[in-house]
Amino acid sequence: MINRRAHAVWQGNGKEGKGTITTQSGVLADQPYGFNTRFEDKPGTNPEELIAAAHAGCFTMALAFQLQAAGLAATEMKTEAVVTLEKEGDGFKVSKSALTLTATIPGIDQAKFDELAHAAETGCPISKVLNAEITLKATLNQG
């Protein structure tokens, strides 16, 4: 079992308050977040951005392992994840994570690429934890 940690500190109310997020690795250390970073695109981070980063990274690594098991390796894979936050009743919910992959993988055909990309999409741990619609648009460049 592997445990990873992060913590948040918040001061004040929901709209005017401010907080910081720190991760175990220190990559984020007292990174500011608040209403304006979440809903107004001000400098700082927000939970949805962190989910998008986690999903892009997890999916891409899962695909690298799928490729390895098939005896293949990517020259390059670039994944963008766009996480959608929508109003739901009196609150909000993450409703979607849209993955867009562009990959250069020597020696793979389109059918195998599609199969492995789908397996990574459904099999990565972050996909499994999200209670949201997950979509994947995968483009294979000839390499």
TrEMBL record:
Species name: Methylobacterium dankookense
High-level lineage: Bacteria, Pseudomonadati, Pseudomonadota, Alphaproteobacteria, Hyphomicrobiales
Protein name, entry field: Peroxiredoxin OsmC
Keyword Ligase: no
Ranges for region Disordered: 1-22
SUPFAM superfamilies, per the entry: OsmC-like (SSF82784)
EC numbers, comma separated: 1.11.1.15
Gene3D superfamilies found in the cross-reference section: 3.30.300.20
Pfam families given in the database record: OsmC
Entry keyword Oxidoreductase: yes
